[in-house]
Amino acid sequence: MREEVKVIKLSGSLNSTTSQEFRQNITKILEVGVKTVLLDFQDVTFMDSSGLGALVLAFKTLRAADIQLVICSINEQVRILFELTNMDKIFEIFPTQEAFNQVLLSKN
Questions:
Q1: Partners of 93 in the beta sheet?
Q2: pTM higher than 0.85, yes or no?
C-alpha cells in the first residue's frame, strides 16, 4: 500500500541553483510511490523561470507515473508568476495546507 500524500516544504528561492535539488527530490518520490505530492510554498520567497521550469518538469514526470501534483501557500510574487504564465490553470493551488487536507478528507 503506497502512501497517500507526500508533502514537500520548499523554502527560500526556487531558481536554477535550487531547482536541481528539487528535481532530485521528485525522482526519489517516484521510487517511493505516492498518490499525491503537495508542494508547500509557505517559506518560498522567490521563484524564477528556472524554478517554474522545474515545476513543469516535475508535473509532467509525476503525471506520467499517475501521481498528482498540487501546490499550496504561494505568496504574491509566485502567484503573479503563475498567472502571467497561465500555470495557475495547470496546477491545482490551495490557499493553505489545511485547505488541501480538508478537500482530501472530504474525498475519503
A1: 71
A2: yes
